[in-house]
């Protein structure tokens, strides 16, 4: 069963939490009880395939789904048609203590596929269980990757429309082409004259507007979300932390019960939160390292206890992390303060009205026991791509490079030699221009089309272009909508013809 982070809504089933997306009264759904695996139960999972592991983890949190429903959803999501690697999320050894967890082998070349290939099945089942008669409209705010992954997962799903909002000129050319060329009879893409936070704020405001939701319901529509504010999106992400650990065990890289670190490039805090849930479930984790780019609101928060979004928004070469309001932090703080919804409501209200809130020292100290945080600027990010490639031959994308740069800082400052997994969030080809610039300099990319750069990066790195990115420039542009940040509600009404 699921409860609200603000103690302002009744207890609901898993399917209801997934169908609603977020708490209608404001706040996010969290599981009433975190399932804990004993060391014996954890060891019993050794040798399981990714599909078997996913079915096991999901079954712990989806009480009103049958075993057959879960297994069928898993098999439809994680297979050779959707993923270009038979391990789904392979682990690559970088050096004696460092490993890369590749989460980008799905159809859109980003880690969002790990959740958004299965979420449509979970949502469709949730709607069916609720015996809903209305058409579900999924609203998505994206900083680049979630949008395409959600479009790909939900396209042509009966009874569902999906509308994606992304910051105009705030994503890479490849990301924009991925979204604007998406087919499907139920997909809509809107560029917004603003940044990601403007998109996310507008979408969350619409979810919280009860009169507007009632108006939509009267016209036959019901809203839901595919962002990581939806538990159905966050839950599948827990799986790959267990998968990585069991993979290290399988190859004799660690011993039973040995603790490891995870370094996670972080924007909206969903990916690292999934790692924290794995830790609370009994996965032997020593430290979770939160890696930010120049939009280092999370680094400053974890180091000072003050969350302050009142700062300049930076456009970086890692655009999926260009975020100043990290929605999933609310879930994390709710757990860290002993599930005190009143305190969470106060902090979130301060964030909305003043743009800043401060946590108490005890909460900050409790967080620091398991979580470390730092950031990498643009120069450090690009230098890390080149250094890792020169040293190991491995090619990082810009987001994963932020993680690698932060890990080096963490190791230098702590002398922590714990085996560490850096979570790779995108294929290097998704941000090819920045990666080639890092490897070959500005002249290598100046004036060149990104689709030509794909070919040059492939030749340099000896890697095949990700199949989801090939020939994007040859596909027809199907979505050209553009709106002001104040016009998002009007865009929705135009699409729904209401």
Task: Provide the fold topology.
Layout lengths: L1 E3 L9 H7 L8 E3 L7 H5 L6 H10 L7 H11 L13 E3 L4 E5 L10 H4 L2 H11 L5 E7 L3 H10 L5 E8 L5 H8 L6 E7 L2 H13 L1 H9 L2 E5 L5 H20 L9 E6 L4 H11 L4 E8 L4 H8 L1 E3 L20 H8 L4 H14 L1 E3 L2 H10 E5 L2 H15 L5 H17 L5 E5 L7 H9 L9 H12 L19 E4 L3 H9 L2
Parallel strand pairs: 4-14, 5-6, 5-8, 6-7, 7-15, 9-10, 9-14, 10-13
Antiparallel strand pairs: 1-2, 3-4, 11-12
Helix pairs in contact: 1-6, 3-4, 3-11, 11-12, 17-18, 17-19, 19-20
Please describe the structure with a list of short key phrases separated by commas or semicolons:
6-stranded mixed sheet; about 45% helix; single chain; 15 strands; about 500 residues; alpha/beta; Rossmann fold; 21 helices; 5-stranded parallel sheet
Number of strands: 15
* CATH 2nd-level architecture of the domain at 91-111 and 232-464: 3-Layer(aba) Sandwich
The N- and C-terminal alpha carbons lie at a distance of 35 Å
Helix content percent band: 40-55%
Q: Report strand %.
A: 15-25%
Indicate the overall shape: globular
The description of the largest β-sheet is:
6 strands, mixed
Instruction: Please tally the helical runs, counting DSSP H or I stretches of 4 or more residues.
Output: 21
CATH class of the domain at 91-111 and 232-464: Alpha Beta
Runs in which pLDDT lies below 50 for 5 or more consecutive residues are none
At CATH level 3, the topology of the domain at 91-111 and 232-464 is Rossmann fold
Strand order of the largest sheet: 3-4-14-9-10-13
Overall pLDDT, averaged? 95
Question: What structural category characterises the helix and strand content?
Answer: alpha/beta
Radius of gyration: 21 Å
């Amino acid at each position: 069963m699921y409860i609200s982070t603000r103690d302002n809504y009744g207890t609901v089933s898993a399917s209801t939490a997934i169908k609603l997306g977020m708490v209608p009264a404001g706040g996010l759904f969290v599981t009433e009880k975190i399932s804990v695996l004993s060391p014996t139960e954890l060891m019993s999972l050794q040798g399981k395939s990714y599909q078997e592991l996913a079915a096991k983890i999901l079954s712990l949190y989806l009480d009103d789904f049958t075993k057959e429903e879960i297994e069928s959803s898993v098999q439809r999501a994680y297979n050779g048609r959707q993923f270009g690697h038979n391990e789904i999320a392979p682990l690559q050894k970088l050096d004696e203590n460092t490993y890369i967890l590749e989460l980008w082998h799905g159809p859109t070349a980003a880690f969002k596929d790990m959740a958004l290939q299965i979420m449509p099945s979970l949502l469709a089942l949730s709607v069916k269980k609720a015996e809903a008669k209305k058409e579900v409209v999924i609203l998505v705010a994206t900083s680049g990757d979630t949008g395409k992954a959600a479009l790909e997962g939900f396209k042509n799903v009966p009874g569902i429309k999906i509308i994606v909002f992304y910051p105009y000129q705030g994503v890479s050319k490849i990301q924009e082409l991925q979204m604007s060329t998406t087919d499907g009879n139920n997909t809509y893409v809107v560029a917004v004259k603003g940044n990601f936070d403007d998109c996310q704020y507008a979408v969350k405001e619409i979810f919280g507007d009860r009169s507007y939701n009632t108006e939509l319901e009267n016209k036959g529509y019901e809203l839901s979300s595919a962002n990581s504010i939806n538990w159905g999106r966050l839950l599948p992400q827990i799986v790959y932390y267990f998968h990585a650990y069991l993979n290290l065990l399988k190859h004799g890289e660690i011993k039973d019960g040995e603790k490891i670190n995870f370094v996670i490039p972080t924007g909206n805090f969903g990916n690292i939160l999934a790692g924290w849930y794995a830790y609370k479930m009994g996965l032997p984790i020593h430290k979770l390292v939160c890696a930010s780019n120049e939009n280092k609101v999370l680094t400053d928060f974890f180091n000072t206890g003050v969350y302050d979004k009142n700062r300049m928004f930076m456009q970086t070469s890692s655009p999926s992390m260009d975020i100043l309001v990290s929605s999933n932090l609310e879930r994390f703080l709710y757990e860290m303060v002993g599930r005190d919804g009143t305190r969470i409501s106060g902090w979130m209200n301060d964030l909305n009205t003043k743009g800043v809130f401060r946590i108490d020292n005890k909460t900050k100290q409790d967080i620091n026991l398991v979580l470390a945080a730092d950031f990498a600027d643009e120069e450090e990010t690009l230098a890390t791509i080149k250094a890792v490639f020169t040293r190991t031959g491995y090619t990082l994308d810009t987001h994963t490079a932020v993680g690698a740069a932060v890990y080096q800082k963490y190791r230098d400052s702590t002398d922590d030699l714990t085996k560490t997994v850096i979570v790779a969030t995108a294929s290097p080809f998704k941000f090819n221009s920045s990666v080639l610039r890092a490897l070959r300099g500005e002249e290598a990319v100046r004036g060149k089309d990104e689709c030509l750069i794909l070919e040059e990066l492939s030749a340099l790195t000896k890697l095949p272009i990700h199949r989801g990115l090939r020939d994007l420039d040859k596909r027809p542009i199907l979505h050209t909508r553009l709106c002001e940040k104040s016009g998002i509600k009007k865009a929705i009404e135009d699409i729904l013809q209401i």
